[in-house]
Amino acid sequence: MARPAIEDNARFGVAGCPPNFWKSPFKEDSANNPLWLDSIGLDAYEVQFTHGIRMDREKALRVAENARKGGISLSIHAPYFVVLTSLDDTVVKNSIDLMTRCIDFAQYLGTSRLVFHPGPHHGNPNEALKRCLKNLETVGRNIPKGVYIYPETIGRKEFLGTLEEVVKLCRELDFLRPCIDFAHVYARNGGNLVTPEDYIRVFDYIAQVIGKEVLSNLHCHFYPVEFDSKGEKCHRNFKESASGGYGPRFEPFLEAIVEYNLSPTIICESKQVQDEDALTMKRYYEVIRNKKGWKLVNAT
Ligand SMILES: [Zn+2]
């Protein structure tokens, strides 16, 4: 059943079709994923083109229709082989073509959000950022009004994609918005996001450089991660994070969101159980949000 879109609510969802989807009665057609997500109480779906655009226009239109029916907001994750920082002209050309195809699919799916990984920096992040920006300008030449491209923060240190680099990119072109993968930020910085104040600092920074409006509808990825000195090693889930000590923890993140009164879209990429972990976050969010409401009502 479609829930009304409540503007000031955070949305919680998954990347791709989780294993539980394939055990559900909806499994006959992966275009049913939005209907399944609605049936379990989630509100967002990032369509994964990470290993290629394995969908035709008709299927994309079916996904869009099901998302409308289920009140699910959609985004797209572009292929991993898009490398807009590349030094190789052929790779750049192919990457621009792929981004352009993703933009076509954004229109079929009726989404305004296209997430991508910028690529390796080859030891010189400043030059890589300039190349990425120049290629994004080319991608953006024919971008339809209302479609935005989201460079993502990246967990491995050899890639362009610190929080600062992503925010810097977004300041330069008006069709860019940040995708903050908090697990990647955490892994890259040796586990730096611990308290609500750590998140508030990130939110303040984004608001300061690219504005409060972008911040209030922030596109995020959140899940626990294992890392080493080079950054991200692999995705984990909340069950593993309890026993293995993997972070970041979702509680301080959601407390900061409620404190800041943000309405982000939060895509969970937990290993195997992204739907269950997204629901865990949504439940916690609702509890602390209601508590805050209760406090405010009683304070007046
Ligand atoms: Zn990603």
* Envelope shape: globular
The radius of gyration is: 19 Å
Number of E strands: 12
Largest sheet: 8 strands, parallel
Bound molecules: zinc ion
Kindly identify the CATH topology.
TIM Barrel
The N- to C-terminal Cα distance equals 36 Å
SSE order, one letter for each helix or strand: EHHEHEHEEHEEHEHHHEEEHHEH
As residue ranges, the low-confidence spans are: 1-7, 295-300
**Number of separate structural domains:** 1
Walk across the major sheet and give the strand order. 6-4-3-2-1-12-9-8
* CATH architecture designation: Alpha-Beta Barrel
Structural category? alpha/beta
What's the total helix number?
A: 12
Let me know the average pLDDT.
Answer: 94
Our estimate of the beta-strand percent is 15-25%
Topology:
Blueprint: E1 11-15, H1 19-22, H2 33-40, E2 44-48, H3 57-70, E3 73-77, H4 89-109, E4 113-116, E5 119-120, H5 125-140, E6 148-151, E7 159-160, H6 163-172, E8 179-181, H7 182-188, H8 196-210, H9 212-216, E9 219-222, E10 225-228, E11 231-235, H10 238-244, H11 250-260, E12 265-268, H12 274-299
Parallel strand pairs: 1-2, 1-12, 2-3, 3-4, 4-6, 8-9, 9-12
Antiparallel strand pairs: 5-7, 10-11
Helix pairs in contact: 2-3, 4-5, 6-8, 8-11, 11-12
The structure holds zinc ion.
Can you summarize this structure?
The chain has a single domain (11-299), classed as Alpha-Beta Barrel (TIM Barrel). Residues 1-7 and 295-300 have low confidence and may be disordered. It has 300 residues and is an alpha/beta fold.
